[in-house]
Design brief:
Two copies of one chain form a homodimer. Chain A contains 19 helices and eleven strands. The first copy, chain A, is an alpha+beta fold and about 600 residues long. In chain A, strands 3, 4, 5, 6, 7, 10 and 11 form a seven-stranded mixed beta sheet that branches. The longest helix of chain A is centred in the middle third of the chain and has 37 residues. Chains A and B meet through helix 10, helix 11, helix 12, helix 13 and helix 14 of A and helix 10, helix 11, helix 12, helix 13 and helix 14 of B.
C-alpha cells in the first residue's frame, strides 16, 4: 500500500529559488567544477527514481520480515541484497564523498535532499548507507594516508559498509564510562577487546566487508572521556593489494528485537582481540568520532523529515479519497454518498501541520547543508569559520526538532486514516514505529538540547546565537510578508536567551531543566525565518507557478497563524525555571 | 520485565480526600446500602492483586504471541483463558452492573479506578471486559425485560462476552452510511445481514457465548442516521432455559494485524441472515448505542491513564537505577561510577510531565465518575439532570485528553529508557503501541473535540460549560494555593468560549478548525482546577503523610509552572480561526 514520490518540485524550490544554489556553488571553486543547477536536478531525478521505484517497494515486507540472526550471520529481508547492488552501483554511498578516493564530491545542500528521499523510502535500508557515509567522513578527516587509501574507495562504492561502535551496556549517553580496551602491538596495530551494543549494521549480508569505527581505551589512558581513542576494526583484514584476508575477531553476538526499523540489524558486537588501527591521535578519539556523530546527527534529523513526508503523502491521498460525512460548508460532491474528508477542518489542520513542519524542516536542512558547504569549501578562512560555528549551533536543532516533528507528523498522518491507520497493511503505523527511534539514537533529543543550550548558546556567551538572530533581523527589514510575527518570535528567542545567559550562572540546574523547550523555541523561530523567506519568494514569483507557489503561501500563512503560537507556551515554561523540577526527592518518584 | 503495582495510595487520596466518597455515597440511597469507604478500599486492594499479579504478567507474551485466527476460530495467547476464568469468578465484569441481574452495583467513581488498573495491567485483556460491561449497560437501559432476563446475568458473570458492531468499510465516523440490513420475521425476531469491521472481541475463546450489539437498517428505514436500529445478535441462540442452542449466522471472517493491542481480536464480522432481536425502538438505534458508546468513551479514555501510569512506574524505576553522568549540582552518589539519571533535570521534566498528567487525569476520571453516579442515583431530579449535562460535557474531554496525554506520557516513558526504550523486551515500546489506538477508536479524538465544541458547548449557548466554570470560579474564592494561575486559565477558557460562541455563527468552518485545540484548553483548565483542589488538601493534611502529600504538592507546582502555560499557545491558535486552513484547494494537498 505504501507509495512514495520524491517532492521534486519543492526540492527544486528550496535549492534554486530559496538558496540560489547555482550562484553559491559558482563562487566555491571546489564545487564550481563539479556541479551546477542542471547536474543537481539530474541527480535529484535519478534519486527520485531509485528511492521511489527500487527502495520504497521493499519497505512493507522489510518491516514484516525483519532481519534474521543465526550462528553469527545476519540475513536482511528479501530484495535488500539486490536493491543494495543497484544502489551502490549508482554511487549513492559516496555522493558527498571525497573525489580523491572515489567519492562524488557533491555539495551537502544537495545531499540532504537525497537523504530525505532515502529515509522516506525506507528507514532501515537508509541506515546501511548513512552509517557508511559517516564512517568515510571520519576516516577522511582523521585517518592516516594508508588507512584512507585502503578503506575509502570500497566504502564509497558500497562494496564495504561502515559502522559506529560507541555504546556499551554501562555507557550510553555517558561515553566516559567506556571499558573496551586496546592493546598496542609491535607492528603498530592494536588488539581490541570488549562488547558494544546497539550497533546499526554491525553484521549484514549486503557487503563483502564491514569497517567498524570503535571507541576504546589504551592501557595508560586517563579515566573519563579524555582517555578514549578511535580505532578502525575491519570484519575481514585487508591485504596489501586490497583483497580480503583473515576473518578478524569482531563478531555479532545477537540482534535486538525492536519497535521498528526492523530491517536494520541492531547488533551486539563482541571484539575479541580484534586487530584495529588507530584513527587520529591517541586519547582524542571522542573528538574524531564527533566528525562522524555530527554527520549522523544531521542525517538522523533528516530521517524525521523523510518519514513525515512519506506519511503526509499517504495521508493527503487518503483524505482526498475517503468519503465520510458532509463538509461544514455543505455538500462538496453532490453525487457522492459523502464528501472527501479533505474538506473537514480538522483533517486540514492535521495535514497542514505535517506539511508546514516538513517543508519548514526541508528548508532548514538545506540551510544547514549550505553552512556545511561554506565551512568546507569557502575560500575565505573567516567565512569557513563563521559557517562552522553556525553548523555547530544548528546541528542539534536539526536532529531533535526534525525528529520530534517527525513523530508528531507521523502520528497525525496515522490519525487521518482513522482505524485504518492502526492496521499494518496501510503502512502508516510503520512510519510511527520507524521514526520513533530517531528521537533516541545519535544522542537522545534531551542530549541534543543540552548540547544546544549549554555548549552552543551559553558557552560562548551567545555569540553564535546572536550571529544567527542578526541574520534573521537583517532579513526582517525588507520582509514583505509575516514580518511582524517573525520579529515577535525573534524577540522572544533573544529575550529568552538573554534571560538564560543571566540566570544560568546562578542555577546549576537551569540548563537541563529548560533545554528541550529552548530547542523547540529555537526551532520554531528558525522555521519562521525560513517560512517568511519562502513566502517572500513565492509571492514574487507567483505567476510562474500559481498552484505550487500559492500552496506555499497558504502553508506559510498556516505556520504563522497556527503553529508559531506554540512559542508562547515554550517561553513561559522556560521562564518558570528549574525549581519545580526539584521539589521531590529521588525516592518520591 | 514489565511490572505494575496499582497506585493505591493515590487512588485512596482521590476517592476519600479529594471527593469524600463515603459522604457522597451515604446520601445516595441506592449506594449507601452497597458500599462504604472500607468496602471500596477492600475492592481496590483485591483489584490491585488481580491486575498486578494475574493480568500484568501476561502482557508481554500476549504482545509477542498475539491472537491467532484459523477456520473462523480465534485463539487468545497463552494464559488468557485461565486468567479470564479467575477474573470472571471475581465478578469484575459486573462491578458496576445492575444488581437485579447479578451486577455488583458499585459506584462509577470506584469503577474508574479499577478500570485504570486493568488497562495498566494489559490493554488487550481489558478490552474483552470493557466491551462486555458496555454491552450490559446498553441492554439494561434499552432492551425489553425478556432480553435482560436472558442475557444480563451471564454477561455480568463473564460467562459470555459482549461486542459493539458499528463500523462498516464505508461507514466509520459517518454511521449514517451503514448498510447492514434487518428483515423482520413472523416471530418478532429479525434476520441480520451485512459485514462489520474493527469488531473488538468479535470472536474469541474466553467465553461460551458472544453477544453482539449490531447497528442495522430496517427495510423501510429512512436514509441516514435516523434510519438505524439496534439489534442483539448472539453467537449461539439461547434456549428458553438459558442453555445454548443453535449456532447463529454471525461469523468472524478474518482478524486485523495491528500496531498494538495484539492480544485483542479485532474482527471482520459477517452476519448472514443471523437471528437478532430489536433493542429499544426501531430507527432509534443510534441513541441506544450511545449508551454503550458513552460508557466506552470514558473507558477508552481511562486506557490512556492506565498505560501512562504503567509507563511512568517503569520509567521512574529505571531512572533511579540507571547510572549515567554526574548531576549538574555535582556527584550525588560519590562511590558510584555515575549518578542515577533521576538527578538530571530533563529526566525529571519527563517524569513529572507524565505524573502531573496522569494524576490530574485520575482525579478528572473520578470527577466524571462522581457525576455519573449523581446522574444515576441522586434523589433530586434536578441534581440528576445537572449531573447528566456535566457528564455529556466532560465525556469527550476525558476520552480525548486522557488518550492524547496517554500517548505523550508513554512516549516520554520510552524516552527515559534511551535506546532500551526502543527494544521490545523492556516493555516501554509496547505501551506506546497499545495506547495509540485509544486516540482512534470509540470516535477519533478529532470527533470527540467536535462533539465537545459543537454539541456540548455551542449548541446550548454555553450553559453546560458555564455551569462547570462557575464551579471552578466558586472554588477559587478560597483556594489557598495556585489561585491566580487557576483564575487566569479559567478566564482564558471563558474568554475563548465566548469568542467561539460569537464567531461560530458567522463561520461554518470555525468549529472543526479549532475543536481539537479547544478540547485541550478545556482539559488543561479542568486539570488545573483539580490540581488546585488536590494541592489545597495536601497542604492541609501534610503532616499526616509528608512524603506522599509533599510529592502531591510538588507535582501541583510543576503542573502550574510548566504544563499549564500550554494554554497560552492553544488560545492564540484558536483565535487565529479557520481561514488559514482553507487557503488551499483539495487538489493542492
Amino acid at each position: 500500500m505504501t507509495q512514495y514520490t520524491a517532492p521534486l518540485r519543492d526540492m527544486r524550490f528550496v535549492l534554486h529559488d530559496l538558496f540560489d544554489a547555482q550562484a553559491l556553488w559558482a563562487r566555491l571553486p571546489a564545487l564550481a567544477e563539479r556541479v551546477d543547477a542542471d547536474t543537481a536536478d539530474a541527480i535529484l531525478e535519478e534519486a527520485a527514481k531509485i528511492t521511489g521505484q527500487l527502495i520504497a517497494p521493499l519497505s512493507r515486507n522489510g518491516d514484516e520480515q525483519g532481519v534474521h540472526f543465526e550462528a553469527g550471520q545476519v540475513t536482511t529481508p528479501d530484495g535488500f541484497r539486490e536493491a543494495w547492488r543497484t544502489y551502490r552501483e549508482g554511487g549513492w554511498v559516496g555522493l558527498g564523498g571525497n573525489p580523491e578516493y572515489g567519492g562524488m564530491g557533491m555539495p551537502k545542500m544537495l545531499a540532504v535532499l537525497f537523504e530525505e528521499m532515502l529515509y522516506a523510502a525506507d528507514c532501515s535500508f537508509s541506515l546501511y548507507s548513512a552509517l557508511s557515509a559517516g564512517t568515510c567522513l571520519a576516516i577522511d578527516a582523521h585517518a592516516d594516508e594508508a588507512l584512507k587509501a585502503t578503506f575509502l574507495a570500497p566504502l564509497y562504492s558500497g562494496q564495504w559498509a561502515g559502522t559506529m561502535c560507541l555504546t556499551e551496556p554501562q555507557a550510553g549517553t555517558d561515553l566516559g564510562l567506556i571499558r573496551t580496551r586496546a592493546e598496542p602491538q609491535a607492528d603498530g596495530s592494536y588488539r581490541i577487546s570488549g562488547s558494544k551494543i546497539f550497533i546499526t549494521g554491525g553484521e549484514q549480508d549486503l557487503t563483502e566487508n564491514i569497517v567498524h569505527l570503535v571507541l576504546a581505551r589504551l592501557p595508560d589512558a586517563p579515566a573519563g572521556p579524555k582517555g578514549i581513542s578511535l580505532f578502525l576494526v575491519p570484519k575481514y583484514l585487508v591485504e596489501a593489494d586490497g583483497s580480503l584476508g583473515a576473518r578478524n575477531g569482531a563478531h555479532c553476538g545477537s540482534i535486538e528485537h525492536k519497535m521498528g526499523i526492523k530491517a536494520s540489524a541492531t547488533c551486539v558486537m563482541n571484539f575479541d582481540a580484534a586487530t584495529g588501527y588507530l584513527v587520529g591521535e591517541a586519547n582524542r578519539g571522542l573528538a574524531a568520532m564527533f566528525t562522524m556523530m555530527n554527520y549522523e546527527r544531521l542525517s538522523i534529523g533528516i530521517q524525521g523529515l523523510g518519514c513525515a513526508e512519506a506519511s503526509y503523502q499517504s495521508a493527503a491521498r487518503y483524505a482526498c479519497e475517503r468519503l465520510q460525512s458532509r463538509a461544514a460548508a455543505g455538500p462538496q460532491v453532490r453525487d457522492g454518498i459523502a464528501d472527501p474528508i479533505i474538506h473537514h477542518g480538522d483533517v486540514r489542520r492535521m495535514l497542514l501541520t505535517m506539511r508546514a513542519l516538513t517543508e519548514g524542516g526541508r528548508a532548514f536542512a538545506a540551510y544547514v547543508g549550505q553552512q556545511l558547504d561554506l565551512s568546507r569549501y569557502a575560500e575565505d578562512a573567516g567565512e569557513r569559520e563563521r559557517a562552522q560555528r553556525q553548523v555547530a549551533l544548528l546541528t542539534p536543532v536539526a536532529k531533535a526538532f526534525f525528529t520530534d516533528n517527525g513523530l508528531e507528523s507521523c502520528v497525525l498522518g496515522q490519525q487521518v486514516f482513522g482505524g485504518h491507520g492502526y492496521i499494518r497493511e496501510w503502512g502508516q503505523e510503520q512510519r510511527v514505529r520507524d521514526v520513533r527511534i530517531a528521537q533516541i539514537y545519535e544522542g537522545t533529543n534531551g542530549i541534543q538540547a543540552l548540547d544546544l543550550l549549554g555548549r552552543k548558546v551559553l558557552a560562548d556567551g551567545g555569540q553564535a546565537l546572536f550571529a544567527f538572530t542578526s541574520e534573521v533581523r537583517a532579513f526582517c527589514v525588507d520582509a514583505p510578508l509575516h514580518r511582524d510575527a517573525l520579529l515577535e518570535a525573534l524577540v522572544r528567542l533573544e529575550r529568552t536567551s538573554q534571560w538564560l545567559l543571566e540566570q544560568a550562572p546562578r542555577d546549576v540546574n537551569l540548563v537541563s531543566a529548560t533545554a528541550v523547550e529552548y530547542l523547540h523555541l529555537f526551532g520554531l523561530t528558525a522555521y519562521a525565518y525560513l517560512w517568511a523567506r519562502m513566502a517572500a519568494i513565492a509571492q514574487r514569483k507567483l505567476d510562474e507557478d500559481p498552484a505550487f507557489l500559492g500552496a506555499k503561501l497558504a502553508c506559510a500563512e498556516f505556520f504563522f497563524q497556527r503553529l508559531l503560537p506554540r512559542s508562547l507556551a515554550l517561553e513561559a515554561s522556560i521562564q518558570a525555571g528549574s525549581a519545580s523540577l526539584y521539589g521531590m526527592a529521588s525516592g518520591q518518584f
